[in-house]
Design a protein that fits this description.
This protein has 234 residues and is α/β, with parallel strands linked by helices. The chain has 10 helices and 5 strands; from the N terminus they run H-E-H-E-H-H-H-H-E-H-E-H-H-E-H.
Length: 234
C-alpha cells in the first residue's frame, strides 16, 4: 500500500507541476472545477460514491486512507504545496495557521493534513473523502456532501461488502462513528452530525450509486454553475 500511495502522490505532483509550468508560460488560465467533499456515517457508501463520481466527472479521488498516509509521510505535504504558485502557497499557509490556533492534539499531523487538503482544493477537480475536509476547504463553491443511513442498513451494507458478520460490523460501527465524531470535535470544534456543515445530507439507504451520483452532480451543477465532462462509469 505504501508503494502504491507513493506512486499516486508522485504522479499527481508531476501532473500539477506540468500544469504550473504551462500556466506560467501562458496568459490563459485553465478552467478549475471546485472540489467535492464527502463525509459519511460508518457503513454508508462514501468511498464507493466517490469512486463512481470520480469516473463519471473525471475528478481525482482522495479517500481517507490516502489522506492519512500522505499526511503521515514526512515531506509529502510540502511537495503538494510547492505545486502551487507563490500567492496560492501563502493562502494555504495562512489557512494552516488559522486552523492551528486553538488545536492542542497532534499538531504535526493536522498541519500536514490541512496543507494537503487545501492544496487539493486549490487545484480543483477532486473528490475528498472524510478527515474533516468539509471544515478545511474554504471556497464557497465547494460542494460538501454527507451520507447517512439507519444503523441496521449501514451494518448490513458493511458486513456484505467486506464479508464479515453483522455482529462484527455492528461493533465497528459504534467504534468508528465515535472516533470520527471525536476527531472532528477535537480538531475543528465542530459537530460532525450537524447538517449545517454540509450542502447536502442524503439518506443513502434509499438510493443506489447511480442515483446518488445523479443527486450529487445535479447539486454540484446548481451550486457551482459548472458541468464537468461526464463519462460512463464502469
Amino acid at each position: 500500500m505504501a508503494r502504491k500511495v507513493t506512486q499516486i502522490v508522485e504522479n499527481q505532483i508531476r501532473a500539477w507541476r506540468r500544469q504550473k509550468t504551462l500556466q506560467a508560460s501562458s496568459d490563459k488560465q485553465e478552467k478549475k472545477f471546485p472540489v467535492i467533499t464527502i463525509s459519511r456515517e460508518f457503513g454508508s457508501p462514501g468511498a464507493a460514491l466517490a469512486g463512481y463520481l470520480g469516473e463519471k466527472m473525471g475528478f481525482n479521488v482522495w479517500d481517507q486512507e490516502l489522506l492519512v498516509l500522505i499526511a503521515q509521510e514526512l515531506g509529502s505535504d510540502q511537495k503538494f504545496v510547492e505545486t502551487l504558485d507563490e500567492r496560492r502557497q501563502r493562502v494555504v499557509e495562512d489557512a494552516v495557521a488559522a486552523f492551528l490556533t486553538n488545536v492542542h492534539t497532534n499538531v504535526n499531523y493536522l498541519h500536514a493534513l490541512i496543507r494537503v487538503v487545501r492544496t487539493i482544493e486549490v487545484h480543483g477537480s477532486g473528490i475528498i473523502v472524510g478527515r474533516g475536509s468539509n471544515f478545511i476547504c474554504e471556497s464557497p463553491q465547494v460542494l460538501n456532501v454527507r451520507l447517512v443511513g439507519p444503523l441496521k442498513y449501514r451494518i448490513n451494507y458493511y458486513a456484505n461488502r467486506f464479508g464479515i458478520t453483522r455482529e462484527e460490523a455492528g461493533k465497528l460501527a459504534g467504534i468508528k462513528d465515535k472516533e470520527r465524531s471525536e476527531f472532528i470535535s477535537s480538531n475543528f470544534q465542530k459537530d460532525v452530525s450537524d447538517p449545517l456543515g454540509y450542502d447536502l445530507v442524503i439518506n443513502s439507504s434509499f438510493y443506489d450509486l447511480e442515483q446518488l451520483s445523479d443527486i450529487v452532480m445535479r447539486a454540484y451543477e446548481i451550486k457551482t454553475g459548472m458541468i464537468p465532462v461526464m463519462k460512463e462509469a464502469s
